[in-house]
Amino acid sequence: MKIKMVRITPHPVDAGKAMYNSYCASCHGEDGKGYGPATPALSKGAPDLTLLAAHNQGRYPKYKVITALSKFSESHHIGTTSEMPDWYKAFVSLDSTNPIKADLRAISISRHVQTLQIVR
Ligand code: HEC
């Protein structure tokens, strides 16, 4: 099976839940548990994003999530499989004249991922 990369659907920069469901749920699942429809194509599946706080002494690691979606995602590189798409590039492609919006998207999505935590 191969993951089909499609052109990113535009959503408002503050629509964290809509962006999560549109951009992230295919791998991480709408509930964040890591069982989206694309996971069979991933070498190790997608990580469970509902445990981020539980694995960080009960504190949601927002900088980790925002960084994973930022232009620093490669230098702070997450994991080893490189199967997590380059979201910064995708977000900049939506607002190429105003790249700060890419960071706002990362923040809005992170806020939604925080609501999925089993420990809050
Ligand atoms: C094509 C599948 C796919 C999509 C879509 C995807 N991810 Fe991922 N993501 C992964 C994989 C695979 C990893 C693990 C990378 C590794 O270990 O090499 C990962 C890792 C992560 C991590 C690091 C988790 C940890 O415990 O370190 C975060 C945070 C994350 N993704 C958030 C997101 C968000 C938010 C979105 C939507 C903007 C998203 N991902 C979309 C596949 C995906």
Radius of gyration (CA) equals 14 Å
Helical content stands at 25-40%
Report, as a whole number of angstroms, the end-to-end distance.
36 Å
Q: What is the residue-mean pLDDT, rounded to a whole number?
A: 89
Please trace the helix and strand order, writing H or E for each element. Answer: HHHH
Number of helices: 4
Number of strands: 0
Strand-residue proportion: under 5%
Number of domains: 1
The unique ligands bound to this protein are: heme C
Q: Pairing-aware structural class of the strands and helices? A: mainly alpha
The largest pleated sheet is described as: none
Poorly predicted spans? none
Shape: globular
Characterise this structure:
With 120 residues, the chain is an all-alpha fold. It has one domain. The protein is built from four helices and no strands. The chain has helices at 16-28, 62-68, 87-94, 100-115. The N and C termini lie far apart (36 Å). 25% of the residues are buried. The model has no long low-confidence stretch (mean pLDDT 89). Residues 3, 23-24, 26-28, 38, 42, 46-47, 49, 65, 68-69, 78-85, 87, 109, 113 line the site of heme C.
